[in-house]
Amino acid sequence: MSSSPPRLGLRENLGQFIMLVVVNAFVGGMVGLERTVLPLLAEDEFGIASRTAILSFIATFGLTKALANTVAGHLGDRYGRKRVLVAGWLVGLPVPLIVIAAPTWEWVVFANVLLGINQGLAWSMTIIMKVDLVGPKQRGLAMGLNEAAGYLAVSAAALATGYIAGAYALRPEPFYLGIGLAIIGLLASVFFVRDTSAHAKKEEADWEAVNEDDGRFEVSYAEAFRITSWRDRALFAVSQAGLINNMNDGLAWGLFPIYFATLGLPVEQIGLLTALYPAVWGLGQMGTGALSDRWGRKWMIAAGMAVQAVGLFTLIAGEAFGVLAGAMILMGAGTAMVYPTLLAAISDVAHPSWRGTSIGVYRLWRDGGYVVGALVAGITADALGMEGSIIIIGALTAASAVVVSTVMYETLSPDGRRQAREATE
């Protein structure tokens, strides 16, 4: 007896969708382990004074994650989503153990190579699998829920490790949490997650049924890379906004804890501020992704980049805890407006047959922002001080908002869909 064909939609696939949300929370928790503790660990235990050297772990993480993203999308299209998801967890298993035992900073950097691969493979697959399940009508909502789960877990892990470090030490106690996250995430992926490649093929068949000339949407990897990176105006705008957004996240991850420490804040308050940014980011995405399904993608992205820039400039306006908290809230709100909307815009434009590859290319550029951010933030902080670094990156963020508002077309509009079709001709 043959199984029934897959059905698209959130309600039709609710159980599997929820399972993927849970799995992505564990993926996010693996990154959150490091948000508070690792920059402080670099100074306190390894004696590293150079901001550029401290931020090397973020550059390494970002480079490996960016490369893993584009490989993940292509492998997921070719070999199936679940296999790539499980592979990501296998690579992530030793990360907390290496950080606990690391005798030198180079071992911590190596652990972040593995973490980057883990995040690139596992997080990419949770995104692509949710897009597969819900179909074309609720992509913004699906991405909002996915990213909300991931970044709320980032926030929770950052907050938890901050308090654990304050009560015990910077290591090993905070990283015991990571061992549990990795084991549970792997087991859940192996035993409870089902592959969604058949759902992608169902959407592809539906698309071709209403677009008889759709054969021209069959493109090579190289062509998908060109379309996503620069040939399509909307996807170019999305890719550069993603890069700048994660440049900001790299700054927040690697430099903010040190900046807060120079202001005399205790590690518990540093952990709270570090957690506040991804908490607002995570919670906000529950609404912003769905709103972009109704209001459109372009102006949600442009406004989100502008709000992030305001948050960065606010950060250096004063040293009071309330001012710093307000800046982190603004950064989180702006990122929440941008993050799921960028992914939904990619899914609006890319054909189902190469959507996974296109998402991987976008995430290559987006997570390349960690590398750019680490280099720019580290070099400018060493040369101009941390406040100078924050001002420069704030200006780049404002410029990104201008690029989106002037270059991007609205991907949800009929005219936008026509332009997307023309980009593949």
Automatic annotation (TrEMBL):
Keyword Hydrolase tagged: no
Q: Where are the transmembrane segments?
A: 14-33, 53-72, 84-102, 108-128, 149-169, 175-193, 299-317, 323-346, 367-384, 390-409
Q: Which UniProt keywords apply?
A: Cell membrane, Membrane, Transmembrane, Transmembrane helix, Transport
Q: Where in the cell is it found?
A: Cell membrane
**Which residue intervals define the domain Major facilitator superfamily (MFS) profile in the entry?**
17-412
What CDD domains does the entry give? MFS_MdtG_SLC18_like
Identify the main location.
membrane
What membrane topology does the annotation report for this chain? Answer: Multi-pass membrane protein
- Provide a Gene Ontology MF annotation, just one: transmembrane transporter activity
Q: Which cellular component terms (GO) are annotated to the entry?
A: plasma membrane
Coiled-coil positions: none
Q: What PANTHER family does the database record attribute to this sequence?
A: INTEGRAL MEMBRANE TRANSPORT PROTEIN, RESISTANCE PROTEIN MDTM, PUTATIVE-RELATED-RELATED
Protein name as it appears in the record: MFS transporter
Species source reads Longibacter salinarum
Query: Source taxonomy lineage?
Result: Bacteria, Pseudomonadati, Rhodothermota, Rhodothermia, Rhodothermales
